[in-house]
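Q: Structure for this?
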Amino acid sequence: MEDYPESQKHLARPYRKAVLKALLGLTFVGGLLFFTLNINKQNYPLAFAELVMAMYAMAVYRAVRNTQHLERWILAYTLPFFTTMMFSLVSPHATASVFAWVLSIPILAHLLMGRRLGLIISAFYMACAALIFYFKYRHSAEMMQPLPIANISVMSLTVLAFSHIYEITREQSETRLLKIAQTDSLTGLANRVRLNAVFEQERARCLRHGTPMSVLLLDLDHFKQVNDRFGHEAGDLALKQVSKILRQTLRATDLPTRLGGEEFVVLLTDTAADKALQVADKLRLAIEASPALYQDQPILLTVSGGIAQFGTDGHDLRSLISRADQSLYQAKDDGRNRILVAGTAPAHCPG
Ligand SMILES: Nc1nc2c(ncn2[C@@H]2O[C@H](COP(=O)(O)OP(=O)(O)OP(=O)(O)O)[C@@H](O)[C@H]2O)c(=O)[nH]1
């Protein structure tokens, strides 16, 4: 589970909303201005289009304030906006300077829609603008000179390339920061923040498809003695060793996380409690069989655990962890090195 698309979408929303609101404000004011200018020039179709866009900008501004569907509103506004721009380029009354607006397309499209969709939308509208330019000025000897054409083309491609590169690097830094924010620095496992985010996604999937999901809470036994006897560095090494076993043993669709201290939570997707117990026992035996080596000394490790199943034992992460925690403490009381399923009699005896 290495993707961060949902978190990234949430992270991009506030700044995309700010860019959209600025665009809406500017097009409202600009629309009214160009409406007046076009009325004075008796260019009524374009004046009417500018007025409609200004009113539409106002309506969208009100709609996006509390929307849950920002991406849809971005498309619902920018596509008519860019199309109106093309309409202005076609207008016989418009001067060649109107083509300068085309340079705003790649910037706005990338800022508002990200690198992939931004590139597609920019390429489409810039190609339309190039065709309009050609058909409008193909008989104009002045405009069809190689120098102005090369100038316009290179400038347009430069703005497109820089907008795209900017968005790629911005998304990459965002992914890097998200990864750092959602990773436990000692073990490299996911942390509580990521656990919460993935749980919410998986919960929706479980409710939609009716698939099971279990939460396994693991706690190292007598870990204080490891620190006291071998030192804190050895304790850290033991935590890394357990993390390595979790990563190696679990399926790619499961999420092993470190909650803090010597406590781990594993989110087992598409897994009911009885199957989760089998997985947990496999982990428990692997941990027992692989002592951490600190300065050539083996540190024997065992874990106790509790399992709770989504739906049966709770519908949110907090209650599931709390139910698993009750079983974990029961497992500790029963002698440690065992896993118990919530609401059942002791399900495993070490041996
Ligand atoms: N080395 C190391 N130790 C940690 C870390 N986080 C917590 N600990 C130690 O983990 C120990 C946990 O001790 P306890 O809560 O008493 O649990 P325990 O000794 O494992 O006993 P039981 O859970 O009852 O089996 C404490 O000594 C903490 O200092 C860490 O990041 N690194």
